[in-house]
Design brief:
Layout lengths: L2 H4 L6 E4 L3 H12 L8 E4 L4 H11 L2 E3 L2 H7 L2 E4 L3 H10 L9 E4 L6 H8 L5 E5 L9 E7 L5 H12 L2 E5 L5 H9 L1 H19 L3 H22 L3 H7 L6 H11 L2 H21 L3
Parallel strand pairs: 1-2, 1-4, 2-3, 4-5, 5-6, 7-8
Antiparallel strand pairs: 6-7
Helix pairs in contact: 5-6, 8-13, 9-10
Length: 280
């Protein structure tokens, strides 16, 4: 296949940051042939070994010159850690033009603050993917500032659809998405830990407990998606009066399981807002 003909997004894409989300995006957009490897350049602050690995694995260009990446990219994706973002973006002031599309995966940092640090009024789209992007199953929220066009929002959507599903929201909702789906995989992993541990404690081989737990979680997710029934209804369908499921649910209720999960999501949402506030 002619690779250039297959690629459907024109222009150069620069990544400031080289962590796991960046690698997931590289794998997704290259697999779907949205761009060619030579359209992409990745930079980080000092980890040459990491850049070499990405170059070898994906065939992309790499550099430690973030100013060159900022100046030369049609789409600039900000993927540094939140604690490093203010210093890094202020150093780029004057390097980004108003015609460039900036996409941020920095948790908690608003589009207005990014524009202020960069010193330019440009289209900025803020996103919140989650770690399931590594297997192409992220749930990603997108929010655009006032300078972003519908076409640019559609372009960002295509990029993030390469690693999962995408939902366009108002920017103030991104903190909620952070608490719900951004941090959400960790809640599921915590539940899986407990289920596996209980199976092993009851006498199952640990690998058997793992496989049964994973298939149970996968099956429940598919039931919810394919039947489109409310989770409360599906729960009631498998809960016979006086049966094993009811006995287990009564224990969860005694520990206020639902209240604990809701409180965790609300606290994570609040923490996202706190993180954003500390940069203002």
């Amino acid at each position: 296949m002619n690779e250039q003909r297959a690629c459907s997004i024109e222009g150069r894409i620069g990544f400031l940051g080289a962590g796991s989300i960046v690698e997931a995006m590289l794998a997704g957009i290259l697999k779907k042939q949205l761009v060619a490897p030579d359209q992409i350049c990745v930079t980080n602050r000092s980890n040459s070994e990491r850049l070499a690995l990405l170059a070898q694995t994906y065939g992309v260009r790499t550099t430690h010159d973030k100013w060159e990446v900022a100046r030369s990219s049609d789409i600039l994706i900000l993927a540094m850690k939140p604690k490093d973002s203010a210093e890094a973006l202020k150093e780029l002031a004057g390097s980004v033009k108003s015609s460039q599309l900036v996409i941020s995966v920095i948790a908690g940092v608003s589009t207005s603050l990014i524009g202020e640090w960069l010193g330019v009024d440009c289209p900025i789209i803020r996103t919140m993917p989650n770690t399931s992007s590594a297997v192409g199953l992220s749930a990603t929220g997108l929010a655009a500032n006032e300078f972003a066009s519908k076409e640019q929002l559609a372009l960002a959507t295509r990029l993030f659809e390469a690693i999962g599903t995408v939902y366009t929201v108002a920017e103030e909702e991104l903190d909620i998405i952070t608490g719900l789906s951004g941090s959400g995989p960790a809640y599921i992993y915590y539940l899986v830990e407990a289920m596996m541990g209980a199976g092993a404690t009851a006498g199952l081989d640990r690998e058997m407990a793992r496989q049964l737990t994973l298939q149970t979680v996968l099956g429940a997710a598919h039931m919810l998606m394919e039947t489109r029934e409310e989770p409360a209804l599906l729960r009631k369908k498998v809960t016979s009066p006086g049966g094993t499921t009811q006995a287990g649910l009564e224990v969860l209720e005694s520990y206020q399981f639902q209240k604990a999960v809701k409180s965790a999501i609300l606290r994570a949402t609040e923490r996202s807002r706190e993180m954003g506030a500390q940069y203002r």
